[in-house]
Design brief:
The chain is built from eight helices and no strands. The protein has helices at 2-17, 21-38, 44-61, 65-91, 101-125, 131-149, 155-172, 176-203.
Length: 206
């Protein structure tokens, strides 16, 4: 057992050594933008644009076509979120909002529909061997991203779920640095949720 674990660890170290500079840059920029988003820092949006472009290249090379296409959506929402955060900061004193329990039904329905449609399209029209897994992660990310741009508190719950799901998927695709990245993102997303929740509660006293 010890020898097996040592071999696995050695293989992981070798894979890290072979990781391209582009993947490392994506690693750093993604952590930076998610951390800044958790801190409600508007600089998360321009940095996220860099991360999105890098991720698009890496996902395309790894045949994660759902996530590749998702980057175009992320790029659009990055510019939208940048504009919306500036606008909302000027207009209101309570930037963070929360959804009701009934809204979760809409969110879950949207994720299920998107997963089915995306999974089918990926299965039929791309060479990917993980169509529905890719489709699910893409679907949750779609919904979570638009919630983030609108400063909806519960966006972090979806990010925690999808980040956890990405870890085994990325390991399977030999994107080990990105798998390590998403493990870190789970922690950052959890911290983001706690920080935003604290801010949301403080807003009620204004």
């Amino acid at each position: 057992m010890f020898i097996l674990e040592a071999d696995i660890w050695q293989q992981f170290i070798q894979q890290l050594q072979q990781t391209s500079w582009l993947e490392w840059l994506g690693f750093v920029s993604t952590i930076a933008c998610i951390y800044l988003a958790a801190k409600e820092n508007i600089l998360n949006w321009p940095i996220s644009i860099i991360s999105i472009v890098i991720s698009a290249v890496l996902y395309f090379q790894s045949h994660l076509f759902g996530d590749f296409a998702l980057q175009f959506y992320f790029l659009f929402t990055a510019f939208y979120g940048w504009w919306f955060w500036i606008k909302k900061k000027k207009e209101v004193a309570k930037p963070i909002v929360s959804i009701k329990a009934i809204h979760w039904l809409t969110i879950m329905a949207a994720v299920l529909v998107f997963t089915g449609v995306l999974g089918y399209l990926l299965d039929q029209y791309t060479p990917t061997n993980v169509p529905y897994e890719d489709g699910f992660c893409t679907a949750v990310s779609l919904v979570a991203q638009i919630m983030l741009t609108r400063k909806i508190l519960e966006n972090w719950i979806l990010w925690i779920i999808v980040d956890i799901c990405y870890v085994p998927l990325l390991i399977y695709k030999n994107l080990n640095v990105y798998a390590m990245l998403y493990t870190i993102l789970v922690i950052i997303a959890l911290k983001g949720h706690l920080d935003w929740k604290k801010t949301y509660r403080e807003q009620a006293h204004y």
